[in-house]
Design a protein that fits this description.
The complex is a heterodimer of chains A (about 250) and B (about 260). By secondary structure, chain A is α/β, with parallel strands linked by helices. In chain A, about 40% of the residues lie in helices and about 25% in strands. Chain A has one domain (about 5-245): P-loop containing nucleotide triphosphate hydrolases (Rossmann fold). Chain B folds into 2 domains: about 15-140 and about 225-250, no CATH class; about 145-215, no CATH class. The chains are: A alpha/beta (about 250), B mainly alpha (about 260). The interface of A and B includes residues 83 and 108 of A.
């Protein structure tokens, strides 16, 4: 079966000469939930932006459900890859929640009843139907993050990429978002340095450091290896017992 | 945050004025203001009629007149200028309560106060009965360039976000003992403004990135076509038509 996302030897340097990725390779199968772990500056966000062609690799290639990321089919690539950015205020810019959720599918050419159905389904998936008519800036932070997820779900992506989904969330919003994510029937790549969240949501994890993948395996095993975590500038929160993870 | 208010100027309701298409309301208020401005300043009765008509419209829209009066406060700085006119004006003078005033200046001041107040009242009524999102859609329907409407939309959307950032930066400054009282202590405030500019600029880049990721290719999608019916236009144009008639009559009966 074609993987949902295939990254092959991707290297990338920013125009200022800073090299962010050094030959990154991995594949994510359909229906998988994978965490992308790594410290700040590891190149996680740069890698994410390669997946929908906002940045183009200097070497290597990215293939999304069989379609290579290239200028001639960027529109389709951006439909297949849905990215939820870290700050919902960057993502939600339309006057109302419903209009914002409609923005993506409308760009794909949907109109009328079809568009409305998409918007309703996406808002229902994150439990925000009753807020459809409200301006985004009057929602709580957790609600805005959920709407941000809906804006991408409305495009019915093949793969959903979440950039630091748990950042700035209070514990209840964090749990609610986890429930939504586990309930979605979509391939997920979750970028985070929130290790317990990765363990809760993603059976598999990739570890990234210095612009390269340094580990790939079951999340529980990766987190139990204290030396490897330390080598990658990752740490479990205080009070977390790595031994308990093995039993997980 | 989280409260159900849509915008500080908007007064939620279901009156006929609330339900009227935004483009009709905008066009009607603009034409009304034009008629008011074109009225000769000597025709006191005409301005009285305009005021009565506006009060009528406000009542239809369930906008309390006291609230409307409070919103008129925004024009005070402009009226201040008008107050000076009778004192600094040249030419013929009259005594008002023993103070000599220029006749031309008095007329000028009256002209500004009357026309300004009617204009502000008309826009305050539109603002109180139309949510900002609909105002933007109305402007788009009136064929205002899409780019301008988009920019205005972003401004409305991000004004709160940026104001929030300003507030946080101010709190962070005063928490470190900053207590600006004099103009020469403004350096930190100016530096904050610079930082704020850079931050907003960077946010603009991130917003654009998020838009591109959702298939944005340079044009905002038209989501729904909120066309107004002929009847709605006719109803909306009643007020400016009446105002135009009054203005024309005022010119006609002018000595």
């Amino acid at each position: 079966m074609t993987p949902a996302l295939e990254v092959e030897g991707v290297a990338f340097a920013y125009p200022d000469g800073h090299q962010a990725l050094f030959g990154v390779s991995f594949a994510i199968q359909r229906g998988e939930r994978v965490a992308l772990l790594g410290p700040n500056g590891a190149g996680k966000t740069t890698l994410v932006l390669q997946c929908n062609g906002v940045l183009m690799p200097g070497a290597g290639r990215v293939v999304v459900t069989g379609l290579p990321v290239a200028t001639e089919h960027l529109k389709e690539i951006r439909r297949r890859v849905g990215i939820v950015f870290q700050d919902p205020d960057d993502q939600l810019f339309m006057p109302t929640v419903a209009e914002d959720v409609a923005f993506g599918p409308a760009n794909l050419g949907l109109r009328g009843a079809e568009l409305e159905t998409r918007v309703k389904a996406a808002l229902a998936a994150v439990g925000m139907e009753e807020h459809a008519g409200r301006p985004p800036h009057h929602l709580s932070f957790g609600q805005r993050r959920r709407v941000a997820v809906a804006t991408v779900l409305a495009m019915e992506p093949d793969i959903l990429i979440l950039d630091e989904p748990s950042s700035n969330l209070d514990p209840a919003s964090r749990r609610e978002l986890a429930e939504i994510v586990t309930g979605l029937d979509v391939t997920i790549l979750m970028v985070t340095h929130d290790l317990p969240y990765a363990l809760q949501l993603c059976p598999r994890a990739l570890v990234m450091n210095g612009g390269a993948i340094t580990a790939d395996g079951p999340t529980a095993e990766l987190l139990a290896n204290a030396e490897r975590l330390a080598a990658n500038r990752l740490e479990l929160p205080f009070g977390f017992d790595p031994a308990a993870l093995r039993a997980h | 945050m989280g409260a159900g208010h849509a915008h500080p100027l908007y007064l939620p309701g279901t009156s006929p004025l609330h339900r009227a298409p935004p483009q009709c309301k905008i066009a009607a208020s603009l034409l009304f203001v034009l008629a008011v401005v074109a009225t000769p300043r000597e025709a006191f009765w005409a301005f009285g009629l305009y005021a009565v008509a506006l009060a009528g419209v406000a009542t239809v829209g369930r906008v309390p007149l006291t609230l409307l009066a409070r919103r008129l406060v925004i024009e005070l700085p402009f009226l201040l200028f008008a107050v000076f006119l009778p004192f600094v004006g040249q030419g013929e003078r009259v005594e008002v309560l023993g103070v000599p005033m220029a006749v031309g200046g008095l007329w000028g001041a009256w002209n500004i106060v009357a026309k300004g107040t009617l204009g502000v009242a008309a826009s305050a009524i539109v603002a109180a009965t139309t949510p900002v999102a609909e105002l933007l859609r109305g402007l788009e329907r009136l064929r205002l360039p899409k780019l301008l409407v988009t920019i205005a939309g972003f401004m409305v959307r991000y004004a709160d976000v940026i104001a929030d950032e300003v507030r946080r930066m101010r709190i962070a400054r005063i928490s470190r003992g900053h207590d600006p009282r004099w103009i020469w202590q403004a350096r930190a405030v100016a530096a904050s403004a610079g930082t704020l500019f850079i931050r907003s600029y960077e946010r603009g880049e991130r917003v654009y990135l998020a838009m591109v990721s959702r298939g944005y290719a340079g044009a905002m999608p038209v989501l729904e076509d909120l066309g107004a019916t002929r009847a709605q236009w006719l109803a909306a144009l009643c007020l400016p038509a009446m105002a135009a008639l009054v203005a024309a009559t005022a010119w006609g009966v002018r000595p």
